[in-house]
Amino acid sequence: MKEKADKLPIIIPLVVYHGGEHKWNLRTSLGEWITGYDQLPPEVHKYIPNFEYFLHDLTQYKEEDQKMNAMLKIIQLMFRDVFTKDHEAMLGSILRALYYLNDLEDQQTAITFFETWMRYLLYAANTLTETDIHDIIDHVEKTFPEGSDIVMTLAERLEQKGKEEGIKEGKREGATNALVKTSVRLIEKYIAPVPNDIVQQLKQQHISTLEKIIENVYEHKTLEEIKQYLK
């Protein structure tokens, strides 16, 4: 609102739901969320806001609706199927979306829009495999060649991100294994032989915990004292 406005604008609450396989089953009016609202007398009702929100449930979206333009069909198609576990259904949705892109009059807008929803799809759809992504690239080249460079670039970025995360994870595992070996060696040197169950517990610890054990092992005399570090 503007600071000195003397009227309120119309605000219509809208919920767009694309929850995969689950239908929306929550209450749709504010009064339904208020305990005992229905039992309140009318004199009290007038002091309590009660309104409904408009629900647009994409799990019920029918692609055959001819009233929608191509862009809206693509948006609803992607939102509806992005979390599906059915690979064939996902790939089918992508192919139909590519078909709709060709219906857009402004192809520059189509290319920009294509990049946006492909970025969303590649990062949000956890079920897509490397083979699926290559299939998508192949279909894009045939159906919407203007977008082939975009999807290949996005796929390369995704692949690079996966490699980087794998390298980081490998470094973490390497550091953890080294600290576990050092912990076991020091415990056995200064306290007692380390049974296998404690070794397995050490492998599950955070790096910071292992560092504390190594730093303080000289202050302890029994394995029970070491176990106090283990979570």
From TrEMBL:
Domain Transposase (putative) YhgA-like: 2-107
GO biological process: DNA recombination
GO molecular function: double-stranded DNA endonuclease activity
Cross-referenced InterPro entries: Rpn/YhgA-like_nuclease, Transposase_31
A Pfam cross-reference name: Transposase_31
UniProt superkingdom: Bacteria
Name the record gives this protein: Transposase (putative) YhgA-like domain-containing protein
Species this protein is from: Gracilibacillus boraciitolerans JCM 21714
Organism lineage: Bacteria, Bacillati, Bacillota, Bacilli, Bacillales
